[in-house]
Design goal:
By secondary structure, the protein is an alpha+beta fold. 18% of the residues lie in helices and 24% in strands.
């Protein structure tokens, strides 16, 4: 994992679980990443993709999700550019 760096905005620490099929309404075993701030970028019911990287994963964003993420950056940085 590369950690903090230029061009990265920390949004919080997530709770990550392996959610087992048949438990708590899971129809397939999957990984849950629980962080309320993610719903400001990826709205409930939307789908995207995830890929692996050394030490972790990345979440690819669709155009509307990118716009929301960039809006959050502008608000948090207080600038028009980041």
């Amino acid at each position: 994992m590369s950690g903090p760096g230029d061009g990265k905005l920390f949004i919080g620490k997530a709770d990550v679980y392996i959610h087992v099929k048949g438990k708590s309404n899971a129809t397939v075993t999957h990984v849950d990443i629980e962080l309320d701030e993610l719903n400001d970028i990826i709205k409930p019911g939307e789908n995207t993709y995830i890929g692996s990287k050394e030490g972790g994963v990345f979440i690819g964003l669709k155009k509307e999700m990118i716009l929301r993420a960039e809006s959050i950056i502008k608000i948090k940085k207080g600038k028009n550019e980041y």
